[in-house]
Structures are given as C-alpha cells and as structure tokens.
C-alpha cells in the first residue's frame, strides 16, 4: 500500500508542473497590469491588454481541465507498460464517467437549470443556501455532473490504470483476436466505468460533505492549521508521501473554497491562480489561499537550508572541504533559486533525527509566522524565482519584505543549530567521513561521465536482472527491484546521488535533485541495450 501511495504521489506532479507554469504566466501578467511598476502607459496599452486577455483565456482553460489532466497523469503514471494506451483510455473513461453521473442526476430532475441560483431562490431557498446547493454541481466538458474536482480525475485514473494493467496483454479467441491486447483496454473501460459512475453517484455526496467538513476544521484552526501542515509536509519528505498531502491542499476543498468571479474554486493553489486571473482580485481571498503556498517555504528554502549547507561545509574535515564544496554549493543554489531542497535534506534527515525534527518544526513555524503576519505570496515553487515574481514585483501588499526579514533570522538560526548539532553529536554530514569509514565498497567507485552514467547506475543496482521498474519525480529516481539488498550504495553515490532510501526489499529511491531526469533517461537507455 505504501508503495502504491508513493507512486500515486509521483503521478500527481504532472498536472502540477502545468499549473505552476501557468501561474508564472499569470504572475508576469499581473506585473504588467501594475502601473506603479511599469507605468500607466504600458499598463493601459491596447497591445498589453490584448496579451493579458489572451493569457487569461488560456490559463483559465487549463484550470478547467485540471480533473481530466489528473485522470490522464494518474493513469499513465500507474500503468506498467504501454502508457500511451492508458492515457487514451483515461480520456474515454473520464467522459463516460461524468456522462453517466449526469444522466442519473437528470433522471431525478437535477440539471443545470434546476440547480441555478435564480431557480433555487424562486423555489424558496435563501441566497446562501441556493449557492451551497448550486455549487455542488458543475458542467464539465459540456456535461452536467457533480463538482468532484480532481477527486473525480484521480478516481478515473486509478480505475483506468487497474483495467489497463490487467487486460493490456489479454489474448482473445482467434475470431476476436483483432480486439486483443491494447485494443481490449478501451473496450473494458466502456464496459466497467459506468459501474464506477453509479457507485460514485450514491457515495460522492457523503464524501463531499466529509471533505468540506475537514476543510472547515483546517480553516477554523487558523495559524495552528498552517503550522501543522508545514510541519507534517517536511516530516513526510523521506517517504515521498508529502506529494499527496500537497496536492490535497492545493487542489481540493481541504485547502479552502472560494467564489471567484461567480465561479466556485477549491484548493489553495487553484484559488490563488483564479484570483490572479481575475480582473478584480480580492486581496483577502488571496491571503486566505497563500497561507498554504510558497510564502511558508521561502524562509527555509531560500535562506535556512543554504545556511545549513554552509554549516555542513564549515564542519567538514579540512581534507574533505574541496570535495564537498561543489556538492553543497550546487545544492544550496538549487534550493535558493528553485525551492528543490531534497538534495540538502537527504544529507542529514537519516543520520540526525534531531536535525530532521528541527527542520520540520522550523518549516511549520515559517507557515505559522507568514499566516499571522498576513503575507500574500503564492505559487508552488518556493525558491527565489517565486519570491521575486509573486512577491517583490507584485508590490507591497504581498508583504514580501517580512519574508526576507524572517528569512535572515532563519539563516542565522539554521547555521548555528546545524553547526552545534553536527559537532556535538559528530553527525556524519558530507565531508565528515574518513577514508577508512568510506572504504567498504570504495574499490567499486567509478567516476561517471554523462555518457556512462546509466551503466554505472545499473551496475550499482545489481544489473538488468535486478531492475523491474524505473521512474522518477522532480528530484528522485524511483525504482522497483528484485532485491534492494544487493545495491552498492557507494557506487551510487559516485554518480552524484545525494541520498538513498531503501523503503523495503523491493523499492528504492535515489535522490539526484535537478539531475534526476538525466539519470532516469540514461538508466532506461542502458536497460534497453
């Protein structure tokens, strides 16, 4: 189950990358609209306004497609082979899923007309109650259905992946052989997905009530809720399950619900982007959404962890300083610019529980402080790029300067806490191991160039016969092996790995940071030889 959840968490990152890119476009557009930054002439120019309108139209459409994007991403990510067929089947499944639900709703007289606010108010409902009822439904790709958001997409994606993995190699009798294999998958989807729709039709209202209640509890918890989120999110980093928590907050009612330009939007990131796309954004709604977004991460990503890298460098043995300087500098710059922190975190979380808990606490505290200080910096990156586009260049209403002030304090605290703990408990952070301590498998260590990267990784993993599945997320190589006990950790580290996580006897994660795409591609090519 844990392996499946981790794999699901990875598949949820696909749509996120599209939304983050769309958010960056909206951030740039909002800068062009600010006369204090670009002048009234540019802000009101016809060409600029047309450009802004075009960006808003494209980005708004992308937000509307989120559920089906999740369906495709989950289906292709969970499929073991022939992923393109799984993606094709997911589109079919998604449409049929909502068509059946819409049909069942219509049988009870529930449609777009009878759930409109005006109609419900004419039937005697108050305006607030009418909005509550109306917001439970939406029109998705021209089909009236429940407002299920990304949950519907994830459910469809999971079912499609299950059917695909079960039947994509199915061989039918000779008379029907044309429909065998991959062609059989869409057929089984058409046959089975209506039953999933029927079950969802009856269960969803109760599930939706529970999700909204959970979102209400988190909202009522105020800044304490944001602290618990930040603390838990960093605590889950070693397991990879933080991706699941992030997406629940970013794209479901757990992260909040708001009405933007007359449309109901759920999820912290969805609300933030909808407000950015609005011609008349509401600052209070923006702040409500951003309390779960990057404003809570900048203090430790841009300032704290780079300072921790400096502490690790300063405490490394003199003879090892030249070796670790480049590694720690690259990791620090990556965290500073992009918010990718796992290469740093994996250098200490497994060898020092004290530093791990300290880091998680400081993450939660950062979210807490930004919330109570009413900071309003959004998006989902966390590095200096996001802080600049969504904070500094947006104007003082974001209170970005408070992030910088807190961040400077974080840099000092991280540096001295890391330095003290490393020296006090002799923590074996990078640069604090001797040649004798590293000699266990040192004979196998190979300096790998980009051309031979895949070959060295494959050798470290025990050869082709030991590799079952190869996948990756934003910073980790995720592997399913026959036996993780034969893995040569030292040889893996020679390829640039910053951390290795053996989840169980079959599942292994190797942290490469921004280099992970190259590592995954090289390994896949080597396995195919």
What distinguishing features does this structure have?
single chain; 529 residues; alpha+beta; Gyrase A, domain 2; 3 domains; two-stranded antiparallel sheet; 25 helices; 8 strands
Summarize the structure.
The protein is an alpha+beta fold and 529 residues long.
What does this structure look like?
- It is a single chain.
- By secondary structure, the protein is of the alpha+beta class.
- It folds into three domains: 2-225, no CATH class; 226-433, no CATH class; 441-528, Gyrase A, domain 2, CATH 3.30.1360.60.
- 62% of the residues lie in helices and 7% in strands.
- The chain has 25 helices and eight strands.
- It has helices spanning 2-11, 13-32, 35-38, 40-43, 46-64, 66-78, 83-107, 117-122, 127-134, 149-167, 184-221, 223-235, 242-251, 268-277, 283-290, 298-314, 321-338, 342-345, 353-372, 384-390, 400-425, 435-438, 453-461, 489-493, 516-528, and strands at residues 137-140, 143-146, 257-260, 263-266, 467-472, 476-481, 499-502, 507-511.
- The strands form three sheets. It has a four-stranded antiparallel beta sheet. A two-stranded antiparallel sheet has the order 1-2.
- Strand 1 and strand 2 form a beta hairpin.
- Helix 1 crosses helix 6, helix 7 (83-107) crosses helix 11 and helix 16 runs antiparallel to helix 17 (321-338).
- It is globular, with a radius of gyration of 25 Å.
- Residues 1-434 form the PTS EIIC type-1 domain.
- It is found in: Cell membrane.
- It is a multi-pass membrane protein.
């Amino acid at each position: 189950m844990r392996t499946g959840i981790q794999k699901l968490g990875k598949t949820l990152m696909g749509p996120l990358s599209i939304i983050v890119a769309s958010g960056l476009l909206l951030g740039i557009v909002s800068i062009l609209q600010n006369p204090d930054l670009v002048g009234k002439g540019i802000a009101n120019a016809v060409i600029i306004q047309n450009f802004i309108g075009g960006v808003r139209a494209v980005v708004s459409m992308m937000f509307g497609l989120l559920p089906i994007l999740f369906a495709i991403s989950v289906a292709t990510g969970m499929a073991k082979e022939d992923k393109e067929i799984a993606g094709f089947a997911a589109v079919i499944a998604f449409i049929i899923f909502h068509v059946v639900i819409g049909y069942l709703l219509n049988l009870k007289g529930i449609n777009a007309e009878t759930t409109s606010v005006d109609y419900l108010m004419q039937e005697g409902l108050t305006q607030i109650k009418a909005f509550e009822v109306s917001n439970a439904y939406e029109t998705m790709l021209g089909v009236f259905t429940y407002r299920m958001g990304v949950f519907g997409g994830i459910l469809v994606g999971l079912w499609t992946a299950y059917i695909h993995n079960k039947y994509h190699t199915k061989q039918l009798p000779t008379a029907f052989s044309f429909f065998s294999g991959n062609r059989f998958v869409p057929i089984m989807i058409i046959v089975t997905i209506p039953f999933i729709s029927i079950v969802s039709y009856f269960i969803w209202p109760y599930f939706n009530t529970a999700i909204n209640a959970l979102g209400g509890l988190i909202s009522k918890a105020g800044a304490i809720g944001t602290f618990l989120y930040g603390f838990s999110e960093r605590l889950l980093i070693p397991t990879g399950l933080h991706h699941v928590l992030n997406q629940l907050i970013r794209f479901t009612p757990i992260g909040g619900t708001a009405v933007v330009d007359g449309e109901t939007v759920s999820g912290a990131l969805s609300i933030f982007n909808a407000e950015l796309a609005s011609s008349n954004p509401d600052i209070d709604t923006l702040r409500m959404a951003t309390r779960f977004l990057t404003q809570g991460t900048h203090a430790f990503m841009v300032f704290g962890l780079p300072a921790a890298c400096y502490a690790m460098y300063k405490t490394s043995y003199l003879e090892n300083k030249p070796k670790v300087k480049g590694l720690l500098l690259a990791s620090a710059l990556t965290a500073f610019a992009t918010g990718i922190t796992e290469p740093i975190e994996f250098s200490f979380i497994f060898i020092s529980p004290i530093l791990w808990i300290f880091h998680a606490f400081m993450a939660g505290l950062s979210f807490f402080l930004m919330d109570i200080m009413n900071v309003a910096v959004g998006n989902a990156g966390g590095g200096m790029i996001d802080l600049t586009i969504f904070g500094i260049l947006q104007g003082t209403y974001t209170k970005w300067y408070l992030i910088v002030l807190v961040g400077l304090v974080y840099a000092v605290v991280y540096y001295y806490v890391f330095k003290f703990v490393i020296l006090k408990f002799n923590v074996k952070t990078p640069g604090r191991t001797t040649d004798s301590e590293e000699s266990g498998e040192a004979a196998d260590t190979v300096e790998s160039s980009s051309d031979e990267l895949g070959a060295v990784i494959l050798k470290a993993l025990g050869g082709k016969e030991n590799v079952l599945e190869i996948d990756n997320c934003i910073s980790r190589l995720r592997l399913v092996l026959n036996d993780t006990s034969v893995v040569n950790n030292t040889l893996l580290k020679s390829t640039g790995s910053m951390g290795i996580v053996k989840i169980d006897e079959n599942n292994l994660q190797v942290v490469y940071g921004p280099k992970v795409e190259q590592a995954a591609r090289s390994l896949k090519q080597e396995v195919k030889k």
